[in-house]
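User: Hi! I'm working on a homework problem where we have to compare a predicted structure to a textbook description. Could you give me the structure for the chain below?
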Amino acid sequence: MVDSKALALFSAIVGGVTAALVVVLLHPFGSTQTKVLVPQSGSTAFASQVTTTYPLTPREIYERDSRGVVAIRASSGGASGASSLFGGEQSTRQTDSGTGILVSATGLILTNEHVVEGASSISVSLEGKGGQTRQAHIVAEDKPGDLALLRIDTTGLALHPLTLGNSSAMQVGDAVDAIGNPFGLDWTLTTGVVSAVNREIHAPDGATISHVIQTDAALNPGNSGGPLINAAGEVVGVNSQIVSGSSSATSAGGSSGVGFAIPSNVVKAFLKQSGNLA
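Assistant: Happy to help. Predicted structure tokens:
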């Protein structure tokens, strides 16, 4: 006869091994969760339930989201004399560079207001240097919030709008990535973490912007208006300012690991108030 104690021990071992195998199979690279994502259609982002496995690697985020990032060239008829929030002066340049985020397949692009302020013409380049360039016009502005919404003609384009995530869910230490056009180096990826939350910064008109995300992902002139992206590939902030020890009236500031992004929940409120979010 089989010893009852031995049988019980054998059953427990088999059960334990089986349970361990189940955990490995279900979570080989991370947890699988249901996320609320913005679809890539409609006037802007509507929520839909999809299942995604994350965290995504920086490479996966870049391959997935870079198509939803655009390079902006804003030209003005004369020197503005304004100081760049990323350091240095804009007064000697006729054309300034920035970044934008596609938020709708209908051609809506989000960026910082200071990127396009005073521009007489705005051009937008899509999907890398091999992509098309279109003229854009401003459809909504929020100077105190340093946000602007542009629109382009979408004829012949297959756009890839990005998802707006929940910025309130971000915590210190969470991984984030930035995609932008620093110093005209279009579609550059930098990585980092959330360094702090609920910071305050000041818009160019002096207004206070609250609940800002601080990050150590490298940000430099030209990153303005670009996305700060979480590990699920969602946009949780609009990269807007840096602190740089070399910033002055005569020298351009560089990244010192202290950057700030306007939270995506503030962006959602701006889109709703502008009539571009259902």
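For your comparison, note the following. The radius of gyration is 22 Å. The chain has four helices and 14 strands. Good luck with the assignment!
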